[in-house]
Amino acid sequence: MTAPDIEMLDHLAAECARLVATDHDRRLDGSLASLAELDEVCWALLADGPLAEDRLRLWWQLAGAYTGRVLVQEYGGTWIDHEGSLAVEVSGVKAFPFSTAHRVLSGEEGKSLASLARALPVIIDRQGRS
């Protein structure tokens, strides 16, 4: 198991916020609400069709890192390596921001970065009651 490179993840998250501000005139402030803004940017990127592979890879890294950082900050989570995939663990529940970002950026219907963040406390609550 490899420890996640937190410094690199934070750099990617900051770069996401910078690029969204300069290229899309939207502000990502690290809040849960900002994930809805990032969803809008992702959907706008897909307006002309699927992203080219290099552009998909870039935005997947940026959106995944930003989403994970928000989950860490807002819910007191921790970046972890889960079977070779980066995840955020909160109260024993694992969330996969890079997987969700890829699904959003691939145009999968019904996928949202904001909904991942909204669902996490519900899942934690249900798990605690089980």
Give a short account of the largest sheet: 3 strands, antiparallel
Helical percentage:
55-70%
Structural class: mainly alpha
Unreliable sequence segments: none
Query: Element order, helices and strands?
Result: HHHEEEHH
Protein name: DUF3806 domain-containing protein
Organism: Actinoallomurus acaciae
What do these coordinates show?
- The protein is mostly helical.
- The protein is 62% helix and 11% strand.
- It has 5 helices and 3 strands, in the order H-H-H-E-E-E-H-H.
- It has helices at residues 6-24, 34-45, 53-75, 97-105, 113-129, and strands at 78-82, 85-90, 93-95.
- The protein has a 3-stranded antiparallel β-sheet.
- Strand 1 (78-82) and strand 2 (85-90) form a beta hairpin.
- Helix 1 (6-24) packs across helix 3 (53-75).
- The protein is globular and about 45 Å long.
- The model has no long low-confidence stretch (mean pLDDT 96).
In short:
The chain is mainly alpha-helical and 130 residues long. The protein contains 5 helices and 3 strands; from the N terminus they run αααβββαα. The protein has helices spanning 6-24, 34-45, 53-75, 97-105, 113-129, and strands spanning 78-82, 85-90, 93-95.
Features:
62% helix; 5 helices; three-stranded antiparallel β-sheet; 130 residues; mainly alpha
Task: Give the helix/strand layout.
Layout: H1 6-24, H2 34-45, H3 53-75, E1 78-82, E2 85-90, E3 93-95, H4 97-105, H5 113-129
Antiparallel strand pairs: 1-2, 2-3
Protein name: DUF3806 domain-containing protein
